[in-house]
TrEMBL record, chain B:
InterPro entries (UniProt xref): ABC2_TM (IPR013525)
Chief location: membrane
Official protein name in the record: Membrane protein
Keyword Transmembrane: yes
Membrane topology annotation: Multi-pass membrane protein
Domain named ABC-2 type transporter transmembrane: residues: 91-274
Subcellular location: Membrane
Annotated GO MF terms: ABC-type transporter activity
Domain of life (superkingdom): Bacteria
GO CC, one annotated term: membrane
Amino acid sequence: MHVLRSSDDSPPTGTYGQVVAIITTQGLTKRYAERVTALADLTVEIEPGITGLVGANGAGKSTLIKTMLGLLTPTAGQLRVLGMDPTSQGEQVRARVGYMPENDCLPPDVSAAEFVTHMGRMSGLPKTAARERASETLRHVGLYEERYRQIGGYSTGMKQRVKLAQSLVHDPDLLLLDEPTNGLDPAGRDGMLDLVHRIGTEFGIAVVVCSHLLGEVEQIADGLVAIESGRLLRADRVSAMTTRTAVLTVEVDEGTDALAAALSERGLRIGRDGAALVTPVESDSTYDLVRDLIVDLDLPLHRLEERRHRVAELFNTPSAGGPTNG
Amino acid sequence: MADVANTGTIHDIGYQRYTGQRLGRGHAVRSLYVYSFRTVFGMGRSAKAKIFPFSVAGILLVIAVVAAAVKAQFKVEIPQLSYVDFPGTLSFLLVLLLAAVAPELASRDLRNKVLPLYFSRPIGRDDYVLAKLAALVTAVSLILAVPLFVMFLGGAFSGSGLSGAWGQFTDFLPGLLNAVIYAIVLSAVALLIASLSSRRTIAAGAVVAVFLVTTPISGVLQVVGTETMRQLASLFSITGILSGLRNWLFGGSAEPAIGSFGPLYAGAAVVLVALCTALLVYRYRKVAS
């Protein structure tokens, strides 16, 4: 249900099923003052579900979000959000998008209920609907009991939830969350990630989560877009990134060819990696099969290792230490 | 983050998509206008936020009641508290009021960094600032209009018959118009100054300072200048411009003497409002979202 594609990885075939991309960019470029390039020729498609937008601080995540909201005009390239052009249809785009900024953005001297209601009306909800939606949204983020208390008295975790609630109050089709776990303790972080996951799955709202912590986004996202210095590093489904490289490496001191032949005979796809054989792990029986064959052929086993890459490793590039470094 | 473990059960009631009406930007702007109007009076916030605006409004009202009572009882009009002179005479109270409420409208949002939440919604930057300005003008107009209306009621029903009441009415209307002009000019200046600082106290001080600093300039010119100079002197102070304009449009107190420069005062008021509004719009186009 969730497919991410970058032009670098696989050229768009145009027949990718019925799922319509929520966000598409084509050569999107944003330069500040002719010198600073925040986004460079970014071409990516983001489809419904939860998408992690990862990159180090200053990689261009916030610029991308502001461009998607129509608050920044791209220097070059095209961008479509929910089928609209944010530059010319900013008002319509912003009516259907929810945005949770990274930094503090709440007035301390009003109640959460009052503030979220106000923000609902700012998004175009009629008075009564705004009040009802505010209550309901605060309930969904777990702040029902406390909603009439002034925000100034809230903990960091509760404030983050109010920020999330205000982005959700008008029931957007797309939610842009900029570092939603910012400043939270481990328990709070898990709670927030759980909430974001629920929004993306149960609520049926497309979510783009910005984070400089890949490990965090990886837990909840269906797809990942990694950018570095405004350039696309990689975009793909999380599942594709992990399972595609779940391979078994077998190294025997002798009889490598015999083993390869025997494995092929049993229907396994065999590749060579130096002296070792590699085979994709198709099911748990793959392990048993490999073990049994080695025993049957009485080969001296040197190494048997599963290589299931973490997503973080996949993003590692020679040019930098990967986007996980904050 | 007390009970993260509990959250699962708290919001396990299911999410429902919103299928109702979505009103656009116009609705958002009107809502912001109403919300800002309420902010001026501290509504939706703690009692502390209500003290100052309601105190000033209360004082103005008491003064109006006294003036009306004096007029009804002794059949004399206090010239400084005539309909058209009322805002000018009590302009220091208005300045204090604006110093308190303009920062509530402008500085507070800057300080709390709420603007990104507004600007990521259908509402535009220009809409935001114009709605705030309109709300402030309305609030100040209302704070002035209520005492004027009380004075009118006092005057109209103090026994000089229907013609007396009509006479009061024809005096009251220019007074009302004058009050709105005061509200527009003072609000535009005060909101612009308040928008320059995210610190409420600094903004409040700056508002008072701008109004106070300009007054002595015109005062000095009044004293040392030639006849023409004296007639132009009030142009150098914001409240002076308003007094001069009031003098030209509605009469009332003969001070300040403006000679035949009435249109110049009107022009100055228009330019001042236009300039402040333009700078406000410019300011909010530049302010970081």
